[in-house]
User: Fold these one by one.
Assistant:
Number 1:
Amino acid sequence: MATYVNTVRYGLSVNTTVLADCSCDSVFLFEDTGDTFTDETTDANSTTTADVPLASFKTAGDCIYIGDAATFSGLLISMSTATVGGARVLEYYNGAAWVECETQTVAVGTLLLTGTSNVIYWYPSADWATVAVNSVTQYWVRLRVSTTNTTGGTISYVAIGRHHPEWTKTIYIPETTSRTFKAAFVRGITNIVGSNVPYGCLFVKVGTGTRVGAFLNPALSWSQQLPLSVCIDATASFTAGFGAGASQTITVMLVTVCPQAATRYSQGANASGEVIITYEAEEQQTRIKTVCIPIETKITDTTTSLVEIGTNQWPNLSTFCPEASPVFREAVLQIRGEWTSVAAAYLSVSLDAEAAIDLGTLASSAYTLVPFEFFWVRNDAATNAVHAIKIKHTGTSATGKNIGALLWVTYEYDHTNSSTILNSFRVAMPGPQPVWYDTSHKSQCREEFLVNEPATVTLVQSAIVMKAASNVQRSFVAAVGSQVGRVYLTAGNYAPVMMVQRFDSGGDKGAGHTLVRGSNVITATVWQVDSNTSTVADILCYAVVNYTSAKASGGAQTHNKTVWVALTTVPEITLPAVDYASVVVPLGTSYHVGSLLWHNFWVTYGNTALEVLRAAGEGDAISSSVAPLYGPVAQAAHKDGMWGTSATGLVKRFPTDPRWGLVDASVSHTWEVIAGTKTFSALEVTFHSITETVTGTVSGYTGDGSGLTVHLFREDTDEYLGTATTAAGGGYTFTWYSDNMNLYATCRQSDVLCGRSTDGKAS
């Protein structure tokens, strides 16, 4: 049986908990020799430096006890004088004894307290019990000296980390034969209610496997309330813990710990996230897929009453998804937009006639426009009806702007008995920068992709997703294909305008593109409304393309698809350039690449670029061994960034692509991220594997007709596609990836014996 590669997505639904601040209820120093406690709670919580001396904290058995009324899961211990020598262990009380904390992850510094700032995370075990320490009953952790040190050091302050309620999620992957996990990515996001950006950590456990943790240390303060995005490459965890069955339970916990501040802000609210899994397995009758359905951006401000985003943009899934016997496993809205208010405020959403569901606090004081993102899982929504998605705000002078969404739907289906297939993929659309105010100099993003699925292809709900940002407040206009421009709301300083603009017939501006078998070129145009000379810092664009077709003879695995590949196992960059070695994009041996899309999470100021190191034979001594794929590109602050590039000029679109110096992404390469910031990087590659055959015969030759070189070209662009070699009698064959595109061939045996074929299609 043939194998195929698939990517599925699941959501971690928004939890509206607003975490408490970073102050702790109790801090005691314990000196083992005299069996004495010193209460340092006030000094440990203060902003005064060097006020918690550890002169006596250096003998084996000495402890720092840190307690709170609720369980917690992180510590930030700021030292004015570092500890020297010795060793320490971090312990909690399990109801019977003090034992070491589970899954300890040190983000900065060390348990030895040798750094200026020491950040430590642990998973709060279920058996953590309260206990009396110095006659105070709380949840305690203790940092115990296990080996005597030379110098105790001096603490400036202690901040504790808080965790959001743990998510428990069932992941369904019914293809069980020869299944291997290629990539697994987990992301947790939370809005920060305050101006100090906290450190963050994710703990992930797959099945009965080992819990793993990964952290992000932004080390950044900002005057806005911003989302924190923490990512983890969980590929090894899925490989070890998922098992052989068709489903498995995973648990995810998001932890934040905030640097000390005179004002103790909440450490986050409205936590949500996503799980993205790429795997390879053998074909089978029951399969699973994820499709992305765009929800067009609302271009009016929110009000205090529920107002629908568009009209019934959540489609009837039982008819939208045409495959046989669908079993819907996941429906999650990824909601994006901007927000401003002058006091505590929040957004609320609903479906149809439901009461509003609070998405949680977005602001605690006056802030200008800032971005937000939520994942709202609605697996309870009826799949045989359309739904109205509604939104409102509550709060003083609050406003939600440019709110749109992506609806990710994951479902199993009977492949054998399906005659119609829904094809859903994303196409990177690179465009020029910057974007000017001048309607005669509009900036355009564009990309070509091939549609080679059989029979009639019908475009359904599709859109471009465009993000434009400026260092000053600006309004933007976007048009897709033949559409007239759609005006979006003014964005604040460095806040992105999220433009989800449909180009199918159901969109606000009508159909901007038609879809044909063969070559399709999609375009998006954007320009500024405001009349001044400021430019946009960046414009990031990709298209979500959905269409139905008949089933390809090679099976659904050959259809257009988008798969996800995580580049990094450590979710932060601390150097200007970081290499990720041995990355293989799972394209198989026969493919036509449509585009590459680079995702970059938690990007702050600065230029960022992605490069790939060429392998032997992919360049020559004159060229650099590094192929620059993206950028450098300027990026505004504190948002996940998405860069797209045309695959046509950078990587081989198909295995025999003849152009010089291209990278074959299907074999092992080292990818290099160049950034002056913290980031987690991943690739999305769109490709199909439907192959057709060009056959022909050269005539008029001398000899037996074998060994002649035939050159193949596209008729519409004259692009050189590759060569074929004739056999005796002049016959040749060539593999191509579309049967609806005219090609022609040339052959030259001598200056006299040369010629060109008529135009024809592969079949």
Note: Residues 577-688 form one domain.
Number 2:
Amino acid sequence: MKTVFTLILITVCYVTYAQTTNKAGTLDSSFGRYGKVISNTYEGFAYTSLIQPDGKIVVGGSGTYYKNNELLKGSLLTRYNTNGSPDLTFADSGRAIYMLGDTGTSIPVIHSMALQSDGKIVCLSPLATLHGKSGFGIMRFNANGTPDKSFGTNGIIVTGISVGADAPYDIALLPDGRIMIVGDLDIYGNSLESFVACYTNNGSLDKNFGNNGVVSIYLSTPIHVKSIAITADSKVVVSGAYRNYSKNFVFRYSNNGALDLSFGKEGMAEIQFEKSTTNTVNDMSIGSDERIVITGVLYLKSGKATIVVSRFTSDGKPDSSFGTSGYAYTEYEGGDAFGNSVAIQEDEKIISAGDYGDNDQALFTLLRYTETGVLDSSFGINGIQNTYFFGGDLGTSVNLQKDNKIVLAGYSQLTGSENKNYVDIARYENVIPRKQVIITKIRHWIQHHNGIEWNNINDISSYVVQRSYDGIHFNSISRINANNNSDYTYNDASSLSGTNYYRLQTISVDGAINYSNIISITNYDIKISPNPATNILHIEGLSSSSNIKITLVDFAGNVVISHQLKANSTCSYNLNIASLKQGNYLLKIEMNGEVVTKKFVKE
């Protein structure tokens, strides 16, 4: 068997790689059932979620379920595998209900959470009581979902900032493990202050941060501080909105609580919204370029609620390159829309997630803005994707996986005779087109070994050899881990009949995936019969798309027959050899610039 190859791509270059099999924003059918997961071993509400480095999904909220005929009520922590199935190794068969201290008949809620580098999960609840002390609760769980008893009292600390009822909203972790919390002070006492609090890794207030662990935020107009995020250089960013006023704001602090005066105007930045009466801030994220993105709700003067996204530059100015004066909002037809969570893609496109509906029905909703603040028409339907579970569906927390798929967690409220609440998770396809460097090239086809050869390059973790029957749909057939070799080869012992297409998928040490050039290999299985032959030599397996030259050479090296054939669909030819003397001959067949040789005997 002889192989002929064509090099389709030769030059190392920059290319744009786009996968169009599944459009961004469509449900991922490999997750759960048709892209959706609904809690069936418990009832509950999901308010927060995160994705672990191994891809497992952790959801927090509140819930109820029966165990040994006992009804458990309390804060809910649950974990799912990457395919959406419950992680039975986590807590109590994948989920657990915890009472925050002795809260009595009230059902505490995990409102926000963060993941430590050691896999432990730190959670925040706005309500807890322990040994007669009331306040908000900070809990820490081990990686397996059990309470971390080395933290506080059996894994919980009940704390407060003011003498009244404080309202914490969000939690984040500094790289050194310190716990940051933001919220409002003494909400029932009509305080105008909000706070940023810093706790050490063991749960005590960090006296080296601010004023004995606390920074108070006071403006002349009442405010809500709702979200917190940490920059790459460990600065603390908090965001919120003025109550009853159409403006939101951002403060930035150093990691010791000092206001960063280089940010905005003396540490503070603001965006003023036109055509609206008021707004709320619900979530914030910081992009790789350190720009700050906030999502929430903008209430128009008509009274309609719309999803709004605003963006600030890294130095604290409204980003004029985004939307209108730094913000963009989307008004849904027929109902109100609420932006509850935000995520930023690698290409700086922005995902805002929440819910949309009217008095009769609510749905999960996702929308994607381009980097300039317009709806991305390549996502969902004109930039928006709605998802139905039961009709009372509220999306609360969105995350991006390492492969860029979108995970949106939330809950459904069923009214009427059923009157139940279910935790819901949806996962969506999401391919991010990007400029990628083709970092390696298949050098050539090794004809006698049916293999390919390429040069090794630095910073590659592994090579995956992929084969295709049509040059479009590729399957992985071998994985080769990179080492210090200068050259690599792969022999394909079971190549497909006809044309085979080969490429290399390269995986860098940081997980980036790139692709090599493609080569096409046609396996010509030339057969001759009969052998020995007397008058006619029948040849099969010729190319149907190439002109062919047939040459017959005796073993003294003399050309005794030479024919030029035109391409034909029969792929066969009868060669008249009646005039030849008896003896051994060599048949040479030239196709596509290559030569296939066969020996035969003339009787």
Note: Residues 2-16+438-522 form a domain with the Immunoglobulin-like fold (CATH 2.60.40.10).
Number 3:
Amino acid sequence: MAQVTRILHLEDDPADRELVQAQLEEGGIVCQVTWVQSGLTFEATLLADEFDLILADYRLPAYDGLAALRSARETCPEVPFLFVSGTMGEDAAIEGLTAGATDYVLKTRLSRLPPAVRRALEESANRRGRKRAEDELRKLSRAVEQSVSTVVITDPQGSIEYANPRFTATTGYAIEEYLGKHTRLLKSGHTSPEEYQRLWATITSGRQWRGVFRNKKKNGDLYWETATISPIKNDQGVITHFLAVKEDITDLKKAEEARVKLEEQLRHAQKLDALGRLAGGVAHDFNNLLCVIVGCGELMQSRLPASDPNQADLEEVLRAAERATQLSRSLLIFSRREPAKLKPLLINELIEGMKKMVLRLIGEDIETRLQLSSEPLTVLGDYGQLEQVLTNLATNARDAMAGGGVLTLKTDQRVLDADFVQAHGFGSEGPYAVITVADTGVGMDSALLERIFDPFFTTKSVERGTGLGLSIVYGIVQQHQGHIECSSQPGKGTTFTIYLPLVSVDLTQQEKEGAAKGPVPGGHETILLAEDEAAIRGLFRKILEQHGYTVIEAKDGAEAVSTFIEHQGRVDLAVLDAVMPKKSGRVALDEMRAFRPGLKALFVSGYSETAARHPDDGSLLLKKPVRPRELLVRVRELLDSKR
């Protein structure tokens, strides 16, 4: 079905109008003609309707063709306008064409009208097509220019022919710096050559490639971007260009890395929590064993004369038990289940006291050098924990010097100023004791140094290391309000530097008071002893009975209560294990106090948590392993205290 052409015809002569329409129909143009005779009607019709073509006489009463042309160009500039006139001269025709008319046809030559109309309609259709294409192109250009994605077009060899503003915003390269340059100017060396080979093999075969680059900006910063690269082909299917659309995903990568790090930290925290739970359970059984070892050892010492050669062996046994006790406490402190107990101590005396043990620990092929400060360095510290720190560092130094070397232990005093505190991010200004542990071993690179204090990170084999040693060291130093640093280079050894705040305390008088312990206290009162470990129960009974006390035993909490009810008139003090079968020491004491309010009690426990939950009701707590003298002193203290 032929398309109907809508025509607006301005003509005051009805006969001419009929001739024009007949000529159009004879020329094969299917049309729908709207005829108007005056200027007012013409302009009103232009506003009221849409037309594909406008025909107008040049001369009309009170109106003319040029006025009609001006109105048409203002109202519908894209619609073709033809003059059809019998009086239009050459000058008028030129004036009309200059003003925007598409063509003119004289009424004396109306046979020209159909081809002129067809040509005008075709040109109009072409103009509309070009305009649509131009509009689409402008829209596409604006979209690309304003896109938040980077858009790059290269030639088949990879040289950049176009890049949108986002490219400059992302990479820092200005247009004159990248235009005509190969895309390799973004290479950072962090994307493998194999990946680039896969990329070119894919796009040169006519397929699309998607992947991720780690590229380098103009200023040297690295960034991540995901890219989709597609070939552009001409009408013959030949690849003429490549189009890359890329997104900067650096923030997403950082977020992903942060998430992975958090998950890793969570796993570490879960490991530490599991370790803490394990340490708590092991500590109970371990401390029970140590309690028997320490108690029996001291009892044997007290029975032997000072000149007995077995005294030295017993002393070694007790010192080993003390170190085992500190090891148990270090695990509890590491898992944050027991706070450090700090008191004034002299750093130089600590190291001097450890010298013999360190020599045995590191072996004869390693030379040990002590460079101790001439000034006394007093810090608030836990002797056993600091001994654990130095022992651990010495052990690591030994492992780093498999072929022999030199281990240096050095102490010094240093006043830290505001610049040091700000640069290192710890502590406060003032005097510090500085402990340096240096070896001449294999050393470490920067990658290892960054993780040296991470829990469960170790460079040792499974059978030689757990990755907990330096984490424990770090935790202990932190609890002492101190700071530890590590410096090292491959082949040049490793140095650990520990900073501990100095305190002003006169230890001389404290030492005198500590030396004057006096006789071991005893008594004649009756003590209810409840302990589920038979060996410890027997040991405590022996210690108490040897010093005059009467002891009534119970093997658990329930038996303690029933025994107390049976002998409540005789019991002066209850010594209770904090954690026992059937009833805990706390519950047993509460039930006994229902019969005798104010009953005095001494709790004994191998669990560190008990100390934190200990009520402030006048009872005392001893932590296993318990020394005989300590047990006797606390028993006497409670019995002599006022109700």
Note: Confidence is low (pLDDT under 50) at residues 461-467, 509-516, 609-613.
